[in-house]
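User: Hello! My lab partner asked me to get a predicted holo structure for this protein. The small molecule is S-adenosylmethionine, SMILES included with the sequence. Please write out the structure tokens.
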Amino acid sequence: MSLRETHCAEQLTGARSLASELVNPASFLQLVEAARDKTRVSGLTHNFYRYPARVSPKFVRAAIEMFTEPGDIVYDPFMGGGTSLVEAIALGRHAVGTDISSLATFVSEAKTKILSDRQLSALSDWAESLAESVNIRKPAPTWAEYEAAGYHKHLGSSFTWRLRKAIEQALGSAISLPPTQEVFARCVVLRTAQWALDGRKQLPTVDEFRNALIDYAFEMLAGARELKSAVETHVEKIPQAICINRAVEGLERTRLFAAKKPRLVLTSPPYPGVHVLYHRWQVDGRKETAAPFWIANKLDGSGASYYTLGDRQATDNWTYFEGLQRSLSSVAQICSDETTIIQVVAFSDPKRQLQRYLEVAEDAGLEELSLSSLVDDEDGRLWRTIPNRKWHAGQMGNIPSSQEVVLFHRRRRGQKPPTS
Ligand SMILES: C[S@@+](CC[C@H](N)C(=O)[O-])C[C@H]1O[C@@H](n2cnc3c(N)ncnc32)[C@H](O)[C@@H]1O
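Assistant: Hello! Below are the structure tokens for the protein in complex with S-adenosylmethionine.
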């Protein structure tokens, strides 16, 4: 089935055209190529964690370069693992992100923190010391409160207990560091534990875990150095990214963008009808564990629908679209007329849900920009396929490869200014 057969919301006829607003429409081709690029995620701090459904850094970079200048604000309302924030600061833009998940906020903070040379060198010493820290014959510290609260569920079987002990030992060494370094070190443990446990048919041995821990630590230090040097090439000194653990809804009632509006909103919200497990890993078959929150020293306590804008069981995705409307309405209110709003979205049922999605965006005060003459997709939108990504769609079973659409909006002209 071709892309053209599967997506087909209404064509964008008579819509405001993006091409007419671009200084150099030919350069849009680079953005299209970046959107369709299929190489693996790499570079900077992007591999600090494999956040589910992360967007392509290449596409994010091309969008930031095309729609902003150094010193502008890039805002990601659903920041997840912080891909857009990392690229924004690397390009000398101010970066702001919000996410309802404390795990997403932890990961985004760890990925965007610019460490000093002294901190990097202390972390290098810590990475060297890991060979001694993880040893199955030595005792491990315990995390009684997390254990009592159920964060260790499914980590006590005859297959998993050794790895849990190795994680406890690695965390024990991370918490001996000063706070900023501890965040980086916890993220190293998080990345290694994700590799070791999440979705694995065969678990690694403790020796393999220790080796991977050391490799990840040095690889992530190299990424942190790469980000630091990218940030330091810019004339204007960009402060640390702002990563806020909160919902988008109601953001217009805060002072966050009171002094300056974002120039670009670049985001990938949860997808309607597509079940993505943002807050759990799967161990021992498909048993879910909240261990990532324990490793990040964060609290969870919320079910899957909390992170996906609603209940995936509801056949009409009613809860999802209600939540989306509230979120996009807040986004519209913190933007100026010059803000470009780019959303990357996938659907379990594109025919039905894209149309609804667009109506919701319109009701929230956004106006879609047509890409006709910029892209060859018949409906005047930019589509991309992602190979090898199998999602479980709520009502449809497994969809073999996923399709995403990249939507471009502006605040509707004449929209009321933010109320606060
Ligand atoms: C598709 S992911 C974003 C992935 C991200 N673009 C990346 O590259 O890592 C969607 C995110 O939206 C967050 N989320 C869900 N509902 C939210 C809300 N009401 N406000 C803010 N974030 C929310 C989820 O926790 C999840 O991290």
